[in-house]
Amino acid sequence: MACANVANLLLVRGSARTREIAVRASMGGSRARIVQQLLTESALLGALGGASGVALAALVLDAAPFLLPTEILPVWLQLAMNLRVIAFASGLAAITAALFGLVPAWQAARVPLAGALRAGGRTATGGSGRLRMGLAAAEIAAAVLLVTGAGLLLRTLTSLHRVDPGFHADHVLTMSVSLSNSRYPEPHNALAFYQSVEHAIASLPGVRDVGLGTVLPADGWDIGQGFQVLGQPAAVQAMQPAAHYQIVSEGYFRTLGIPLLRGRAFNPEDTSGSQPVCIVNEELARRYLKGRDPIGALVSVQAMDPAGPKPVVRQVVGVSHQVSRWCGRWWA
After folding, report:
1. Cα atoms in the 13 Å half-sphere on the side-chain side of 76
2. N or C: which end of the chain has fewer CB within 10 A?
3. Is the Cβ–Cβ distance between 17 and 122 less than 8 Å?
4. Tell me: the pLDDT tens digits for 84-98?
């Protein structure tokens, strides 16, 4: 759109310079020389535009870290100005200057001398007028397309904002902690560390709830473990269903505002010495526990273990509200 607009302005400027070009031609200036002069002017405009674009891009990159939310871009994506970007911008500016400067130059150079001298540069030729109308029509079409796309994007974002994600992240602070296997070789050592961290954070002033989990709701699929509902026909190993498996503490659902539709949350009595339990979401209960009460159902899941996945029979004690982006999910 910007290139078409500049080309249209150059055509208008070329039409206004018709008498000047005619005088140059009458004094011996060849058509090639006149085109060369107009292309030089177009190249100068392209160079100024390219330099301004590179400078503006550098300013935007400097301001982006202060304007964008943290972690909105992948850590491997480093936005920076380098020689490749400058070379690309320079090449694009040169192509744009040559392409959109050649049309006004060609249009101005083909004007008859007698007609141009009589017109005095006050009128444009029919071809120039048609070309300008075509460029204006192309600009309008591109603008309508962009406005339509922007409107549809805005409508989509508004609709997504009204969708219940299944959790509430307002006034929630998250952090990630990774333990070394050499310092915490046994699972009970890591569990003691995480419990001490949870208790220490809960004692801070202003903290209302604390929860631990391996993955946040919007982080995507992390660990998929196969499972089987006891009492139903066993599926072939290759066709065994899998669900997202996550280890959380008893305060996880309360902290993130994930409501439990049925049953209970985890409690301090759910330890390694008691009956293994789990909480499933409503999609898993609807798809795999249909026709029966999910509370109390027994499922065999390939639980995580230092020696590798092993089947553990767990009892369903609760059904959680559906969290967006998850089909089948359960918490242990």
Report:
1. 0
2. N
3. no
4. 889 998 888 888 777
Q: Where do we find the tokens 């491997």?
A: 76
For 286-307, what is the mean pLDDT? 82
One-letter identity of residue 44: L
Kindly indicate the confidence band of residue 40, based on its pLDDT and cuts at 50, 70 and 90: confident
With H, G, I as helix, E, B as strand and everything else as coil, classify residue 224.
Answer: strand
CB 167 within 8 A of CB 323: yes
Distance between CA atoms of residues 320 and 332, nearest Å: 12
Within the chain, strands assigned E span 224-229, 242-246, 260-263, 277-281, 298-303, 310-320, 329-331
Of 189, 3, 17, 188, give the one whose Cα is nearest residue 99.
Answer: 3
User: Tokens 């300013």 appear where?
Assistant: 59
Q: Could you tell me whether strands 277-281 and 310-320 are parallel, antiparallel, or unpaired per DSSP bridges?
A: parallel
Q: Are 128 and 15 in contact (CB under 8 A)?
A: yes
